[in-house]
């Protein structure tokens, strides 16, 4: 009687594993995919090497005047280097830059514990950042207290102003949007009607109109002699405008919660606010994290619209630098720098939302 001896497993075909396998399955799996892949590689060949040469290889980084860039064929980053302080701090007095640095440094220190898994007071710290920190940053920026030199809001600008506008809009629009979303789904007719009218009104006008109205038209309706700061008016307008969009994002999350979750809250004897706070809202907000972050990213980019009311955010102050006779002709470097800064912040928010989705994933993803 013969004994069956199994042969050892054969290795997979060479063309199905490793780099060759990846190329075959992802780029050249069919004639059409091969044609499109070759066309994409050709476009990359045409565009990427010249861009790298212009940005890095042939560029000039050292110097203090435009003469340093006279012999270069690449980018002149000396322009950005010389104007860097103005791009970051606007027209803020140079001797007071430390106040802006302290404000954002303090924010980073306060935010670090929120990312530490074992830190048990994240809720209290988040409330402190939302409710107390804005007053701290207002005192540091505006001055007039504790011996600080007063600085008018018209001198705020650059990246610091962009971050302030985006930060205030994000911090104010999320809680207000949640309240509006709950109001729109309320069974009380007056509450529901007020919420619907508010949301539809602000969604029916563009942000640029809101900023124009807050800057030009609103003072006409205020009592004579009333001095309402232009930056504060812009912040209020941005917060109200974004809260309407945020309300619709949150409402989508609330609509996705099964009816059984509401009934479970009632069966446990929870009140409306207990049921919302402990059961419904945590699930709804988790479902709409991409939509919430998308709204935040849109808000961050829309801050550039404040130029129409005379506020100089990062993009506006870069454009203002183009008018300097000593630096004419370096607009491309300025726009590339602005695009890089906006991309870093927007990409950071996008990646954080993905990490947050992964962390809060509880098996409901399809």
From TrEMBL:
Sorted UniProt keywords = Amino-acid transport, Cell membrane, Membrane, Transmembrane, Transmembrane helix, Transport
Membrane topology summary: Multi-pass membrane protein
Q: Which family does it belong to?
A: Belongs to the binding-protein-dependent transport system permease family. HisMQ subfamily.
TM stretches of this protein:
34-56, 97-116, 125-148, 160-183, 204-222, 272-293, 305-322, 328-349
Which Gene3D superfamilies did the record assign? MetI-like
Report the protein name in the record.
Amino acid ABC transporter permease
Name where it's found: Cell inner membrane; Cell membrane
Q: Where is the ABC transmembrane type-1 domain?
A: 159-353
Which GO cellular component does the record give, naming just one?
ATP-binding cassette (ABC) transporter complex
GO biological process per UniProt: amino acid transport
Q: Does the keyword DNA repair apply?
A: no
Transmembrane helix listed as a keyword? yes
Q: Which domain of life is it from?
A: Bacteria
């Amino acid at each position: 009687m013969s004994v069956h001896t199994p042969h050892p497993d054969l290795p997979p075909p060479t063309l199905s594993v490793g780099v060759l396998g990846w190329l075959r399955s992802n780029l050249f799996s069919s004639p059409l995919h091969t044609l499109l892949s070759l066309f994409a590689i050709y476009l990359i060949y045409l565009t990427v090497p010249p861009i790298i040469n212009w940005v890095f290889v042939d560029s000039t980084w050292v110097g203090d005047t435009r003469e340093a860039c006279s012999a270069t064929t690449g980018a002149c980053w000396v322009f950005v280097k010389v104007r860097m302080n103005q791009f970051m701090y606007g027209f803020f007095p140079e001797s007071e830059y430390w106040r802006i640095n302290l404000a954002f440094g303090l924010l980073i220190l306060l935010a670090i514990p929120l990312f530490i898994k074992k830190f048990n007071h994240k809720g209290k710290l988040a409330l402190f950042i939302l409710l107390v920190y804005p007053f701290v940053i207002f005192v540091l920026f505006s001055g007039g207290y504790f011996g600080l030199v007063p600085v008018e809001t018209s001198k705020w600008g650059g990246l610091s102003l962009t971050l302030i506008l985006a930060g205030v809009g994000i911090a104010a629009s999320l809680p207000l949007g949640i309240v509006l979303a709950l109001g729109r789904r309320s069974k009380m007719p007056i509450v529901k009607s007020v919420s619907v009218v508010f949301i539809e009104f602000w969604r029916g006008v563009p942000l640029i109109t809101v900023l124009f109205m807050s800057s030009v038209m609103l003072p006409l309706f205020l009592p004579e002699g009333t001095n309402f700061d232009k930056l504060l008016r812009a912040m209020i307008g941005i917060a109200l405008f974004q809260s309407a969009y945020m309300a619709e994002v949150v409402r989508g999350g609330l609509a996705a919660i099964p009816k059984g979750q509401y009934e479970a809250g009632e069966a446990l004897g929870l009140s409306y606010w207990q049921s919302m706070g402990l059961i419904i809202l945590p699930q709804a907000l988790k479902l709409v994290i991409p939509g919430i972050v998308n709204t935040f990213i849109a808000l961050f980019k829309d801050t550039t619209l404040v130029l129409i009311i005379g506020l100089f955010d990062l993009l506006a102050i870069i454009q203002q630098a183009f008018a300097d006779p000593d630096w004419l002709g370096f607009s491309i470097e300025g726009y590339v720098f602005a695009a890089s800064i906006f991309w870093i912040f927007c990409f950071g928010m996008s990646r954080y939302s993905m990490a947050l989705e992964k962390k809060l994933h509880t098996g409901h993803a399809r």
